[in-house]
Design goal:
CATH architecture of the largest domain: Alpha/alpha barrel
Strand content: 15-25%
Radius of gyration: 24 Å
Strand order of the largest sheet: 6-7-8-11-17-15-14-13
Structural class: alpha+beta
Number of domains: 2
Amino acid sequence: MGQSNFNYGIIGNCTSAALVNEDCSMDWLCLPFFDSPSVFGRVLDEEKGGHFRIWAKDMVSVEQTYVHHTPILKTVFTTRDGVFEVRDYMPRFPGRDTQMYCPSEIHRNIYLVAGNPKLQVELHPRPNYGLSGAKFIFQPEYLKIASTQGEYNSFYLYTNLDLEDIVQGREIELKGSSYFLLSYHEKMGPVTPEKIFVEYERTKSYWMHWVYRTKVPEKYKEMVIRSVITLKLLMYERTGAVIAAPTTSLPEIIGKERNWDYRYCWVRDASMIIDLYARMGHDGSSARYIQFILGRMLLKNNDIAVMYGINGERNLDERTLDHLSGYGGSRPVRVGNDAYKQRQNDIYGQLIATIHTSFMVDPQDVYSLDEEVWTAVRSLVNRAAAAWKGPDCGIWERRGPMRHFVHSKLMNWVAMDRAAKIAQLIGKPQHASAFLKVAQEIKEDILNNGWDNELQSFVMYYGGKELDASSLLMLHYGFLDKNDPRMVSTVLNIYKELTQDGFVLRYKEPDEFGKPENAFIVCTFWMINALYLIGREREARVMLEKIMSHANKFGLFSEDIETATGRLTGNFPQGYSHLAFIQTIFLLETQYDWSDASRPVLNR
């Protein structure tokens, strides 16, 4: 599976998420929410971060898998004295009044399988991103864990094992099934083995039913399902926001400073994920995300932001946690993300495209696009019409001078083109005509200024010579026909210049952080798609098999990959990477046209 250090499984329930290592150590957990300070953060500092490990002496073997079609992680320990297994998950199932029950807590259920195995527990909480240790307060029903520095946070550990043995790390002979429940909130009712059992079964049932309703191609089915589940785990239940990844500061390049907090909702990434979900028939996720965006655009003069906090926050000021050493010594460790201050003109197109898809899946019901959404579309169009001629920071969030990025111009063309399609569908021909006029103007501008005759390729920005993998998305959105010579030569040039050891870089010229070293997994999938579309299927499938072989043992991807070693880097698991993988499989196995939102990805 490649030389990856990311042999983590993710568990979650759309409120928060945790990473569990192959040795059954929970090395990342933020409570109560995705963007809360970590209580276990060993992934960012081996010594100070904190962890929660269940293990055993005299081990013969440890095997780890997911419970079939769920995000429940099962670790089986075989020791000389017996066998036991741990099932890690976060509860999620329908509660009262059809509301989803997804509390801020993790469950670690322990099952005795055979013999008399002895287990040990390493409980080392470090609240507030490892700022200090924690105070243990013993109570009859639970162990209270309280922060000792920084903002006050407390957590409640429930178990039917001896709390003193756990805190002291003593060996415990397992005599029957046991459990740990770690909650941000004190539980109101008694926590019993029966309650734990019911919540486990309801969670398992929920996920298996949810997956059953998700139609995917037969080839690569299990890996696609794992990706679909992973994307679902990134969708915040309370608001409909979709985060880019559940982690912060896992480095793009080990030992260097491209370390960012991804626990926020980028309009671009989230809209593409929701577009996919709408096409797959998960209309609820699509509707909730659009409502989240509408809640940010209550008035006609409200512009859309590049990114939001999970509750719609606009200010996400970046700061560094200088007491942490960082993953693999990669500093600084950042929380917050100053990209929220940037101008990224491509977001209008992606959001309008997603709104278009969300009701195109049921084109007979044009009134599913209500007046508020139509007002939002027109407001977004007006923003795009005003912005497209200006420079911005682009899809890659460059922190240097703003430029006229070709991809941003492309997405403003998408904004006008998809808005025209919406207008046509709801009987607004005058609007459609006006939008198409601007779309044509943008297209001509891109063809005149974004194309380089000498290179025979579209370039990153007007006047530049640098190639950019995001140009491959011209095919995804139908900007030019797949047989257009300009498109074919662009794909082949990017393939030649940006491919290293079978993986694709975003770009290779130095930026404000130096020369890029690692490939982007999402760009690799874009290249696979582009090669397939221009008739280079053999090269596409070779590249697909290689990138798939470098997923971790669960089929999970991070953001980046070291081209020489195949080691996964960057925040993990990365929504953008899993989105692109799913799109690639549908294209190659069903010939699905992603530029056409008029049909679902599979007949249901």
